[in-house]
Amino acid sequence: xxxxxxxxxxxxxxxxxxxxxxxxxxxxxxxxxxxxxxxxxxxxxxxxxxxxxxxxxxxxxxxxxxxxxxxxxxxxxxxxxxxxxxxxx
Length: 89
Hints:
Order of helices and strands: HH
Number of domains: 2
């Protein structure tokens, strides 16, 4: 879990590729700024996606995503994880 990211997002204006590219660029810029680096690569190329095809599976997928830090041993419950922010429990 510390080496990857799980999201559950609804896309409106941009494409998924545009959204991922923007998040990668902004986070890499900020990490490099905080660590005093310049242009260090932070993310691997590409990404893996999974489209939610049925509305009824949305809650189950959301619960899987928010429980990931617990399964990885990074928190005892989702609310303890510093990057937790969800309404899927």
